[in-house]
Each structure stands twice: as structure tokens, then as C-alpha cells.
Amino acid sequence: MNYPMRLPRVKPEHTPHRFDDGSIQIGGGVYGVAAQIRDPRGWAWEALMQMDGSTSIEAIRDSLSTKHPDLGHTGADTVISLLCESGYVEDAAGHSADGIAFRGASPHEMKRYIRNLAYFRHIDLRPGAHEVAAQCDLMNSRIAILGVGGVGCHAAWALAAAGVGQLHLIDPDMVEESNLTRQVLFDERDLGAPKAKAAARRLANINSAGTFTYSPDRVDSPEKIREVVGDCDVLALCADEPKNDVLTRMVNATCAESGTRWVCAGYSGPLSTVGVFGPGGPCYECLGAGESSKLKDGWHPPLGSSGVMSPSAALAGALLANEIIGIVTGTARQAPGFVRGVNLIAPDHLVYVRHPSRPDCTVCGS
What we know:
Elements lengths: L7 E3 L6 E2 L5 E3 L8 E3 L5 H8 L6 H11 L4 H13 L4 E3 L5 H5 L5 H6 L1 H10 L7 H9 L2 E5 L3 H13 L3 E5 L24 H12 L4 E5 L6 H8 L4 E4 L8 H13 L2 E8 L2 E7 L6 H9 L17 H20 L8 E6 L6 E4 L13
Parallel strand pairs: 6-7, 6-9, 7-8, 9-10
Antiparallel strand pairs: 1-5, 2-3, 3-4, 10-11, 11-12, 12-13
């Protein structure tokens, strides 16, 4: 049998625990990461206890089949394969110094992003996934941020700090005093300065390894959107003009045309939301149509509010950055075509919206 690993090792973050009823808790206690294994005969536990990074799969198989003759080599192979494919086990051979070096990460980068690497090891349950590869994907990515306001500033900071290689910031506005309550990349010394330029300068001080470019252009047409998406892996839409969803719909159509993945985020008072769109999922228009169909005739809720406190803007920006990191590194769990969010004054109100593509949709329909 061709095994996916040479020296399997349970990730330290996912140390298993066996209960008296024979079940196993693995992956800790965080929902979405942890899991329980039903193991009444102790086969999985026996295999896990030998997956310490120093014992070959063949030796584990032989030991398991010897201790449990009714399991045999074929059954032992099945148990081992299921555990190796679960994402809780890594190949110690692939995590050697040589295994890390060939992925192109320098010792300095390993040190700087050590907490990022621990995060990817924890949450990435794809078989054979390597945390250094995920970080390198970030370092090689190109992200365009359209709008450097409350949401865009927080998103840009998070992406720069995480190690995104290239960030292009687009905003035609100047820094005003009222911006300072929530736009984290600016301070009083920036009043009157172009937002995009000031933000790029600040980001260079946060992570000198990144490349931060900027443009003062007003992006308000499909032609200008095409120029932006032509040189990026993901577009982050954080601008609010043109208003009344005009810009969002233009971005939706233009990105669908080019196959570009895009993410938008915003707030309505205490409600912070993020939407993720791209090939393989329903578009923004289809989600909007699905939500409109649930409303009572003659009423449409306002799309946003000018009232905001910094936590709402920060949360929206953080949600946006999180989705982009998931897209770029491949750690995202959900296909595009959804909106989710958090209500800061109603903890029990968690937003998740998804509707199927409409067959007659001119953007994403068949």
C-alpha cells in the first residue's frame, strides 16, 4: 500500500484524549477544528499512541495487526490511512529542516511569522498541508483594497501584519479629523494628506518586507475596475461610493467576467458583515435577490448607517482580512457566495446568508 506519510506524528496542537467509553477527543475543544472518534475496540488509540514521528507507518501497521489479529494488515492499513487523512496527523519527515527550507521560507521569516505558522498548523485539516506553504502563499499574494476607510484600514493592517506580499490601496479622499475615530492607519499628523498614500506609508512601517502601492483614483466604472482586478489575486471592496449598491454591483459583474475572487465588508451600526464571492458560487446579485424575496412587499431595509464606533469598523475589517487569508492559503472552509456577520449589541444574532444561483442570472447563471 502507498502510504501518504513516512513518519506520522500527531500534531502537538491536536493531542488526543481517550474517555472511559472508548471515544477519543482529538484536535482540542474548538468547534470546527476538534472531532470525536468512536473507538470501542481501541484500534485508533493504539495507532495514535505510536504516531510520535519516530515510528514508520509499516512498523505501526505491523504492531497494530499483531496486537489485534482480527484487524489484520488490511484493517490496520484502513485505520492508519483514515487517521493520516484526518488532518490531525503530519509527516515528521516533511517537517524537518530540509522540508521547511525547500519551501522558500528564510529563518527570519520563520521567526517573524511563528504565531501565523502555529495558527495554520492548528486550523488547517487538509491532509499533507504544511504551515510554511500557507505562509508562503500569503507572502506571494497580491491584494487590491478599494477604499481605505474604517473597514479598509483595519483590513490592510491585518493583511500587512500577516505577511501579504503586495497590497495596492485605492482611495481618492483626504484624511479628515472625523476619520480618526476608526481609521487606524491615520493620526493627527496625516490630516489633509491623501488617504491611500498615508496608509501605504504606515503599512511599510508595519512590515518592511511587503510592497505597498497606492492610487488616488476614483474607481467608479467597469473599465476602472478591470484595471484594478487585472493585477491582483483577490479584490477587497471597502469603498462606499458610488452609493446605493452601484459600485458593489459593478464589481460583482466585472469580477465574474474575469473570474476574480472578491470580498466585501461593511457595517450598519453595530452589525458587521463580510461577503465572499468568486467562481464556483452564487454571485452578489443572486444573494440580494434571495434576501429580497423574504421581505414584505414595499419595504427594503437601509443598506448602511453613517453612525459607527471603531469596534464595528475593526470587526468588519478583521472579518474581511480573515476571508482573504483563507482564500489565498486554501484554508477557507466554505465555497464562495455567502455573507456572514456579527451583531455587537445582540450576541445571539449571527448572520449567515446563502442562496443558490438563479438560472436566469446574467452574471453567474447557467
